[in-house]
Every structure is written in structure tokens, then in C-alpha cells.
Amino acid sequence: MTSPDTAAVRNYLQDLQARIVAGLEQADGKSFLTDGWQRPEGGGGISHIIEEGNVFERGGVGFSHVLGSNLPPSAAANRPELAGRNWEAMGVSLVLHPRNPYAPTVHMNVRCFVATKEGAEAVWWFGGGMDLTPYYGYDEDAQHFHRTCRDALQPFGGDLYPRYKKWCDDYFYLKHRKEPRGVGGIFFDDLNEGGFERCFALQRSVGDAFLDAYLPILQRRKDAPYGERERDFQAYRRGRYVEFNLVFDRGTLFGLQSGGRTESILMSMPPIVKWRYDWQPEAGSEEARLYSDFLIHRDWI
Questions:
Q1: What's the whole-number mean pLDDT along residues 264-268?
Q2: 51 DSSP β-pair partners
Q3: At what angle do helices 196-221 and 6-28 cross, to 10 degrees?
Q4: Which residues are annotated as a binding site for a divalent metal cation?
Q5: pLDDT tens digits for 78-108?
Q6: What is the DSSP letter of 159?
Q7: Which residue in the list 65, 107, 144, 297 is annotated as catalytic?
Q8: In what order do the strands lie in the sheet with 56-68?
Q9: Is 48 a catalytic residue?
Q10: pLDDT by residue (tens digit) across 191-215?
Q11: Which of 207, 189, 190, 198 is nearest to 2 (CA)?
């Protein structure tokens, strides 16, 4: 395998974080808080956080570059032979929770892992993707998001979007609820086929596509009128987001298992959430239509 150019990946990720934060600050009109941190075992990161913004009720865009001497089990889930190796992980991860219930929550992550052992060749891989979680569904929003994801992957092979879309559908699925988290997007992990430069270029294409995928949707929905009913349903559905991130999400598990910074790991949590016992939306309502028309696996483009 080609030796991984981790310096180039780090430089790209830091630049990506800065560009995304600049675009989101322009959309919101309020600056993000910048919080740098160091990890005792090695490495650190920068978290950009917004709370009580004009558009975003809560959100974070984090960069991390951490190192360790014992690869956590969550990172070696598909490569058990690498457990216990020295490791280096870097990435940009974001979650945004708009205040307006008609504006969807969004998640994006791009990351790179390197596992090393004395006397052995370094093993590296990339992962990432983005997915959209609406509270009130719009076909044109899901279509735009998926189309942008497809176009980001197209230069690397026409088969990738269908594969990574299905991977996203399968991954962001609440097994105990038997329902998807949202309308999906793309997800990939353990990517090292075709050499380092190809995989790094694919990661850059996905990361660079995020603002194009999300900002047009945000602009369409952020000023839509809403009332207490919509806010109440948004808080209820946000509970599903919390359940997935705390029970299934590999990134959350890796961060906690590797002794990462808890505040930065859990910046994905929404600020206001509600749970109800065995609640069902009113038949024929827009809330019910989210379940029947959007929280299903379907082809959007």
C-alpha cells in the first residue's frame, strides 16, 4: 500500500472545517464559539459550537487529530487483527440542529485512520458521509441532498452512490424502533481500495460537497412559519436522534472508548428533546406523512 500522507489529510480537514464554519456563520448571522482542546494521551482538536443562534438552536463542527497506543474495539470492528496497534485518527464531524422544525437536522463526517505496528506496514483507511434528518418531509429537499451526494461520488465510479446510499440506509437505522433515522444520504467506511491518493480525493469530494448539499435546503426552510405543535413534534423526533447516537453510532463509541473529550463527542446532542410512551401521530397529518413517505428506504433520484 502507499504510505499515508497524514500531513496532507490534516491540512485538508482543518481547511474544510474553516470553510464550513464560515458558510454556516453567514447563514446564521452569529459567530461560532471556538474551543481548542488537548488530549493527554496524544493529540487534540478544535470544536466550533453555536447555541441559541438565529437559525441554529445548537450545532457543532469539530476537528480532531488524536493518537493512541491501543486501537479501540469500535475502530477495529471490521479489522479485528489490528486490535491493540498504535493508531492515529483525524476527522471533521458536524451536526446541526436548526430551531425551525421545517429545517432538517444534518450530520456530516469525514475521517482517516492509520494503524501502525513496529516491523509491519501501516494500515490506513478513510470513512465518512452525510445524512439528512427532516422532521417535516419535502421530496425536493431529499432529492437535492441525494443528488449532490451522487455527484460528489460520480468521478470515482457510477456504482459508488448506490452502494454508499444503501450502506447509509442500513447504518442509520434504529433497529429497536424498526425505522430509519431520516432520509439517509451516503456512508462509507474502511475505504482503501485504489490507493491513498484516490481514496483521499474521494474523501475531499464528499467533504467539499456538504455546503452545496445542505445550505439550499436550509435557506428554503429556515423562515417557514411554525407553532407549538411543530416544535413539540420536532422535540419528540429528536429523541430518535439521541437514541441512535448513544446506542449505535461508531463515532460516538470510538470517542468515548478512546478517552476523547466528552463535550466535543456529545456536541451532536440536540438541546430540547421529548420522549412519550407509545405515541402515534394523528392519521393523515403531516407528522404521519413523515413516517409513511420519508422514514422508509426509497430511491430519491
A1: 82
A2: 58
A3: 10
A4: 97, 107, 146, 176
A5: 676 777 788 899 999 999 999 999 999 999 9
A6: T
A7: 107
A8: 33-38, 43-51, 56-68, 86-98, 105-116, 123-133, 184-191
A9: no
A10: 999 999 999 999 999 999 999 999 9
A11: 198
